[in-house]
Amino acid sequence: MKIDMDGLCRLAVEAGKAIMTVYETDFAVEYKDDDSPLTRADSLSHSIIAGGLGELYPDIPLISEEGKTIPPEERAGWEMFWLVDPLDGTKEFVKRSGDFTVNIALVEGGRLTAGVIYAPYRDTLYFAADGIGAWKKEQGGEPVRIQTVKAGPGAGHVVVQSRSHPSEKLARYLETIKVKGSVPVGSSLKFCMVAEGTADLYPRMGPTWEWDTAAGQCIVEHAGGSVLGTDGKTLGYNKPTLLNDGFMVYA
Fold it and tell me: Looking at domain 5-145, which CATH architecture does it have?
């Protein structure tokens, strides 16, 4: 399906600006059943994105972290749907590190065909889609084409790691490879670091949700990289539980 990428990017930026209005206040923090934080910014961004996508593409269903739970049997036959994380990196938002994003992705026939990540604190936009490749736009400047950069033979990997999810399993894995450098960052920006060539490897050993990974995977794939699950296959979407196991992002 032909997607208006300019419109999709504007919607992500609009949601990001709304997030920043909350960020600049003494906001309250609630906690979900899984102890993950929730703020007014999460729900505000969800409302903007859900409303905007509903107007632009009323026939395409939506799965959002902050939306209602949709039973697997209801979505099993979906050939096309949006996957949205209105505020990815809420822990970083609460800590005021700046490493949080708005994630919007389109899944068609099991493939990620369009994706947008907007980092409102940095005013940096990443986007990708079939036919156009992957792009980065910083602080209102002109978009620049991005692509992954593979580590040379024997050169060692530049690894991007989570700020908020340390893992003993990850530490053990890193002991088995040659690490040239490490880039700590939060939210889906880790995917973006691989996509733009700042890092060439992002190992994630713990579970995530599909809305955490969809937009980032789309951008990485269109920049020349890949995202593989623990089974060695491309990370898939619209699974019965929407839960991912660990995965590896390769340049």
Answer: 2-Layer Sandwich (3.30)
Closest CA to 216 of 141, 143, 138, 148: 148
Contact 208, 244 (CB under 8 A): yes
Q: How far apart are CA 190 and CA 182, in angstroms?
A: 11
Phi (first) and psi of residue 91, to 5 degrees = -60, -40
Q: With CA atoms as reference, report the closest residue to 161 among 149, 135, 179.
A: 179
Describe the crossing of helices 40-56 and 5-23 by its angle, rounded to 10 degrees. 160
- DSSP track, 201-242: EEEE-S-EEHHHHHHHHHHHHHTT-EEEETTSSBPP-S-SS-
Per-residue pLDDT of 134-180, as tens digits, reads: 999 999 899 999 999 998 888 899 999 887 666 788 889 999 999 99
Q: Is the domain covering 157-250 a CATH 3.40.50.300 domain?
A: no
pTM over 0.85: yes
Domain ranges of the chain: 5-145, 157-250
Per-residue pLDDT reduced to its tens digit, 204-222: 998 999 999 999 999 999 9
Pairing mode, strands 157-162 and 179-185:
parallel
For 58, which DSSP code? T
Closest CA to 146 of 162, 124, 161, 163: 124
Q: How far apart are CA 86 and CA 58, in angstroms?
A: 19
The three-class DSSP label of residue 178 is coil
